[in-house]
Design a protein that fits this description.
This protein is mainly alpha-helical and 275 residues long. Helices cover 65% and strands 0% of the residues.
Length: 275
């Protein structure tokens, strides 16, 4: 049965919600908990595990983007139909904001909590960077980290890559990204995640939010175009909408999040049948 757009958007909502709730929740609730706080490493692991679990749970339904930058990179790599891009991004931002709202209510259950005073896991630069890093440093690390994140996603989900392991590679990549960039920006690489937290912090977080849209989207665009240049279009399309061995793949997904209607893909399928 084909995945309709509404079902794919529902999967994107759930996946993005989980990613923000677990990732930002670990930073807000558990990072500095007295004596047993999970710290930078724990927060990094939380983000990676969140995306890994949702990629396995819903990746076969929506593509498992959970991030406007990922959707842009996949769009430019011809993995996402252009007509689906805006609905995906809107859904991701709404889901991230909903997760931030739930997290805000939970955090407010502690006496004296203030989203503004605590930072509420919002992304920032300058005096709002955890390590006091400049805007230039923030833009550079966000663009570079997002670009490599997209390259890993595109490579791990290539039909020529080992099957079934993509979520592991993607989750570990997100862990590594957070380990490096939390001190600089609190790590975004995801404009939806940044937007949800900024709404509840207000003030400086909203003023600086533009950087956490521009840099990740720029990095994602570079990665999407670079991967197409490196591999060509035929190898970057999934074998089918849902996971199956390449030699048995049938392109039945006219409304799938990946374009499987290209001439090259059809020719590849025909060649498999002849063999």
């Amino acid at each position: 049965m084909t995945s309709t757009l509404s079902r794919r958007l529902t999967a994107e909502f759930i996946g993005t919600f989980w990613l923000v709730l677990i990732g930002c929740g670990s930073a807000v609730l558990a990072a500095t908990f007295p004596d047993v706080g999970i710290g930078l490493v724990g927060v990094s692991m939380a983000f990676g595990l969140a995306v890994l679990t949702m990629a396995y749970a819903f990746g076969h339904l929506s593509g498992g983007h959970f991030n406007p930058a990922v959707s842009l990179g996949l769009l430019l790599a011809k993995r996402l139909p252009a007509k689906d891009f805006i609905p995906y991004v809107i859904t991701q931002v709404i889901a991230a904001t909903a997760a931030a709202a739930i997290l805000y209510v939970i955090a407010s259950g502690q006496a004296g909590f203030s989203a503004t005073d605590s930072g509420f896991a919002a992304n920032g630069y300058g005096q709002h960077s955890p390590g006091g890093y400049t805007l230039a440093a923030a833009l550079l690390i966000e663009a570079v980290m997002t670009a490599f994140f997209l390259l890993i996603i595109l490579g791990a989900t290539d039909r020529r890559a080992p099957q079934g392991f993509a979520p592991i590679a993607i989750g570990l990549a997100l862990v590594a990204i957070h380990l490096v960039s939390i001190p600089v920006t609190n790590t975004s690489v995801n404009p939806a995640r940044s937007t949800g937290q900024a709404i509840f912090v207000g003030g400086w977080a909203l003023t600086q939010l533009w950087a956490f849209w521009v840099a990740p989207l720029l990095g994602a665009a570079v990665a999407g175009l670079t991967y197409r240049f490196l591999t060509g279009d035929s190898g970057t399309a999934a074998a089918a909408r849902e996971g199956q061995p390449v030699e048995e793949a049938v392109s039945d997904a006219h409304d799938a999040p990946i374009d499987l209607t290209t001439t090259e893909t059809a020719n590849d399928a025909a060649a498999v049948r002849r063999d």
